[in-house]
Amino acid sequence: MNIRSPITLVFALAVGLGLIASGAAAETPQHGGTLVFTVPASDMPSMDGHQETTFAVVHATAPHYSLLIRVDPTDPKAKRMEGDVAESWSLSKDRKSYIFKIRKGIKFHDGSPLTAKDVVASFEHMIDPPSGVISPRKAYFSMVESVSHPDDYTVVFKLKYPTSAVIGVLAMPFNYIYKADLLAKDPNWYKTHIMGSGPFLFKEQHMGADWIGVRNPDYFRKGEPYLDGYQAIYTPKEVVELQALRGGRSMIQFRGFPPSSREELQKAMGGSLRVQESPWNCGLYAVPNTFKKPFDDVRVRQALNLAVDRWSGSEYLSKIAIVKTVGGYVFPGHELAMTDAELQKDLPGYSRDIVAQRKEARRLLKEAGIPEGFKFKLNNRSTDQPYKIVGTWLIDQWRQIGLNVEQQVLPTGPFFAELRKNPPEFDVTMDFNCQTVVNPQVDVSQLISADRTDANSGHYIDRKLDEMYDAQLQEPDEAKQKEILKKFQIYVAEHGYYINTLWWHRIVLSNTEVQGWNVSPSHYINNQLDTVWLKQ
Amino acid sequence: MFRYLIRRILLMVPTLLGAAILVFVLMRMIPGDIVTMRMGGQGGGSQEAIEVGRHKLGLDQPMWRQFVDWMYGIAKLDLGTSMWTGNPVSEEIAARFPLTMQVALMATFLAILLAIPLGTLAALKQDTWADYAVRIFSIAGLATPSFWLGIVMIIGFLVIFKWMPPITYTPLWQDPIANLSQLIWPALATGYRYSAVATRMTRSSVLEVLREDYIRTARAKGLVERLIVNRHALTNALLPVITVIGLEFAFLIGGLVVTEQVFNLNGMGLLFVKAVGQQDYTLVQGLVLVVVFISIFSNFVVDIIYAWLDPRIHYE
Fold it and tell me: Are residues A219 and A323 located together in one domain of the fold?
């Protein structure tokens, strides 16, 4: 073949263009198909995202609803915010008002138009719930003074003080936009009904079994959704979920699996399995009871903190549990988080020299009069991943400094009841902090005084912490926010209020048909499914 | 007979009342409640929200008041409302009952199909290879947990056929093939163990009856062996077998928790576990009453079958 021949060149060009085109076609979303996924829960308590806290509600119902703004589902780092029903937003000069412009032409599933009135009513339902309505995230909106709509397509959030943290709060995945008329008629209507403006219409549900949605042909994002529908199957047992993935009865599970499941399915499914991993916006802590001797002595709490070898723990525990990343109290990798170098240098308990750390821990215990072999109980939740596994590891860490700890495991209900007792009765308890949108300025609110948050299982009061929290929340400059948050974290660690262990690690398994979905740091976000498509 | 029926029905009431009191008290002895469970998922929820939740569900009322309210509802045949979902308890149970009943009936049918012929064969061919084979088969059934057999079945399907039974329920009248392709496997796994119990009972019962004088008389009269076994021996031997089948059937309603989890069956057993885990008092109470009623009723049916099989038995 003469490569200089015009025919040869044209042929080569045609082949090359063909290869490029086929590559591009493989990435173009395809329409059609039903996404079948499992939800590791037995049921949902109600259909109202405003009043519930479980992912079992979000995974099944989020596709029926729009949000005001949301985490961009195409952003692999899940940091970028985009408007959902909001077309755009701006900040007033005094930085105390956020003005949102609502897209025109959005319809609810019954054909009625979605306007600013509906957005306002939805947020008021959460910020200032009427009698008989439970709003578990009401405290997150504490910076909002009022929400109003000067016209049909403008919503204004007026803040008590300037803070950028409000954007993450407004983007929380439970903030479904409801119809104002339906909320006015019955504020609990949405507990048993669906009426949204999202990419999928509600078709049917079988109590405790599955939930089915079908494509909304009038969805405001043209060309989406790509799927014809979805089916969410409630599957409480992990082994059944794995078998379902392997046997083709489901395509993905949006919460996460432990490392052993990843290994098992990789062996069984090989190239037809897709694994996506991400640090998870969930922290796990040990919380000493500052009301009870000897944990009222800060030296004892400091010792408990210094005994923990997080760096080695990460290496070993990440093989068997859904934990991995070593970090402070701010989500690791975020702009406001401490770097590894800062952690090692400045945050008590994070030095690489565990021998020196434990020596200091022993010294503190001796100074506090704690004898060798001192016994106490660790209150923990009866869930393997990651509670019991990390609890067992912690007990070993404390054994290294001469403490004798017994793990007291409780089912979920009694465990939460134990956390809520005030004053607390436990010696030390495990506690967790799982958040939705990564919003460190608000996510650390669990650690402030117990009279300002119900999530503080230590039930302590510390105004210095509160001051630092308020200061970073109202600080406009990001570098200064980071500095204040660093001091905040060092203060928490120095006082041993919440002893950090490891951040959770999310492993999502799917078959390779499922495209257009990226793992993110939270199992609550990116569940509307409008960008998801199936490779046929 | 009529007076016997009325007496049996009336006797159900104290049994149900006893079960009601027991479950009511036991559930409330567990620390925590459903409201703290629901609020615990993310950030804990405010104390205010928890108080609102408790008030809505009547959990802030004194215990005696909660019990009276519930009993008043039961008297009107209202099992109450699930504290977790807000749906009527009767609806929650009704959504799961057809599947559980179908699995129970299929397992019972399989058990009877296997147990009576195999047990009879083993008795007739006592101490032969047939007897040994049946005994090994039945002992294996007793020793094998049904959920383990279910797991092995599924793994076998996945590894050999790369196939898994459906994990969502389709009613039999909608799509018999989809329905049976899901439910035949748990029915087999459960029915095998069920048949093992009944097979052994049938064997020992038939052996005992075959040693009776009237069987010897029947043989002496020259009756054909098949006739002796079917008309004389089996009819008498089946009485204890029916008792066992009745007891096992009652257990299948609400007792197959692990098997239901293995096959992802949205049945009564799974509902029980969920309700207890969520501390859904009304749902647990309702389920216990339903299961106790079914147990009582199935024993009652067994007694009636007794009277039908054995004309010597009269109820007054």
Answer: no
Query: Considering the domain boundaries, does residue A255 fall inside one?
Result: no
Rounded to an integer, the average pLDDT of A372-394 is 95
User: Is A411 close to B162, i.e. CB distance below 8 A?
Assistant: no
Q: Which two tokens stand for residue B263?
A: 């096959």
**Residues of the domain holding A104:** 7-235
Are A218 and A305 part of one and the same domain?
no
pLDDT per position as a tens digit, A279-295: 999 999 999 999 999 99
**pLDDT surpassing 50 at residue A25:** no
Residue A267 forms part of a structural domain? no
pLDDT in tens, A201-237: 999 999 889 999 999 999 999 999 999 999 999 998 9
Question: Are B266 and A209 inside 8 Å of each other by CB?
Answer: yes
Q: Does residue A288 share a domain with residue A194?
A: no
Q: A424: distance to nearest CA of chain B, Å?
A: 14
- A22 and A130 share one domain: yes
In a shared domain, residues A231 and A283: no
State whether A416 and B158 contact (CB < 8 Å): no
Nearest CA in chain A to B155: A243
Calculate the average pLDDT of chain B. Answer: 89
**A261: in domain:** no
Q: Which residues of A touch B33 (CB under 8 A)?
A: 413, 417
Q: Note whether A284 and A206 are same-domain residues.
A: no
The domains of chain B, with CATH numbers, are: 2-75 (no CATH), 90-309 (1.10.3720.10)
Digit-coded pLDDT (tens) for B254-301: 788 888 989 999 999 989 988 998 899 999 999 999 999 998 888 888
Are the Cβ atoms of A413 and B46 closer than 8 angstroms?
no
Q: How far is it, in rounded angstroms, from Cα A529 to Cα B91? A: 30
- pLDDT, one tens digit per residue, over B34-88 is 887 776 654 456 677 788 888 889 999 999 999 999 999 999 999 999 998 889 9
In this prediction the pTM is 0.89
Residue that wins the pLDDT comparison between A45 and A507: A507
A243 belongs to a structural domain:
no
Residue after which a domain boundary falls, among A210, A235, A260:
A235
In degrees rounded to 5, what are phi and psi of residue A203?
Answer: -105, -60
Using an 8 Å CB-CB cutoff, list chain B residues near A235: 167, 264
Q: B135: which 2 tokens?
A: 């005994």
Strands, DSSP E only, in A125-177? 144-151, 154-159
Write the ipTM.
0.84
Q: CB–CB of A391/A377 below 8 Å?
A: no
